[in-house]
Specification:
It is a single chain. It is built from 13 helices and no strands. By secondary structure, the protein is mainly alpha-helical. The protein has a domain of 59 residues. The longest helix is centred in the N-terminal third of the chain and has 27 residues. The radius of gyration is 24 Å and the shape is flat.
């Protein structure tokens, strides 16, 4: 049945090729602007794709082929075939390097799903071996997100995901927040970043023991026009800022945040 389906896909792709020749002539000059570049069909890539998908790539249906590869990766996740999943995910982003969701979900599979499963895999000879495999998969996810950022530097998503991975999946509870903070800062610099990204920056400084840095960040947020972001948790920011002032011993005359007892009433403050 699978062979029949593959043959039908191949025939469909062949029939569609002439329909897109005219479109490709006008599109070719705009490939750089549209970021439609990608790998040619090397022998290695042809072998990874298989005959039918290679034919689709030759026909110019890169996005369609990438989606089919991604579906195969999903099947590997369901079957817990981690190395095959990694290979297919890497192939999918090779074909579609600007598909943010491929990078995001692919890293999640590696750093969360594969690492957890390998960390409890009783087929390994020792707990030390399991811990090493867990760490290897976390680092694979980290490297995958770093590559995703190099391919997509103008999106907040992957910076945030990398910061979250460092914070959640690496080992040192004091060091990790400070390593993660710069990625949250970068993510927060994008206008479309959700409001919680701003708060994550300050929380990383707090968790990393950097009260002064956290205080400066809370002050930066507090000086914004609150009416532009009414959904921001201004009462929590006031609470955290006040706590930092107490810890740092800021003189009352120099304090920015209202006392804790008044923080619940300042949502509309400027």
């Amino acid at each position: 049945m699978m062979k029949t389906l593959g043959l039908k896909i191949a025939v469909l792709l062949v029939l569609m090729v002439p329909l897109k020749w005219t479109f490709e002539e006008s599109l070719e000059g705009r490939r750089a602007d549209l970021k439609l570049g990608g790998p040619g069909l090397s022998i290695e890539l042809r072998a990874k794709l298989g005959q039918n998908l290679a034919l689709g790539l030759l026909g110019g249906f890169r996005a369609f082929v990438a989606d089919l590869v991604w579906l195969k990766a999903h099947g590997c996740w369901m079957e817990r075939m981690w190395f095959q999943l990694k290979e297919r995910v890497e192939l999918a982003v090779l074909l579609q390097p600007h598909a943010i969701s491929f990078w995001d979900v692919g890293a999640w599979h590696m750093a969360w799903n594969a690492s957890y499963d390998e960390g409890i895999n009783q087929n390994y000879p020792s707990q030390a071996w399991r811990l090493k495999r867990r760490h290897d998969w976390v680092m694979a996810g980290k490297r995958f997100l770093e590559e995703g950022i190099r391919n997509n530097p103008d999106h907040y998503d992957l910076y945030f995901r990398l910061g979250w991975l460092i914070y959640e999946r690496l080992k040192d509870p004091m060091k990790n927040p400070l390593e993660a903070a710069p990625y949250f800062v970068k993510a927060a610099s994008f206008p479309d970043a959700p409001l919680y990204v701003d708060r994550m920056v300050g929380r990383m400084y707090v968790k990393g023991g950097k009260t002064r840095e956290a205080y400066e960040w809370w002050k930066k947020l507090w000086k914004e026009d609150h009416s532009k972001n009414p959904q921001q948790l201004w009462d929590k920011i006031a609470q955290w800022g006040h706590e930092a002032e107490e810890e740092l011993g800021i003189p009352p005359s120099e304090r920015v945040f209202p006392p804790k007892s008044k923080s619940a009433t300042i949502k509309g403050a400027k």
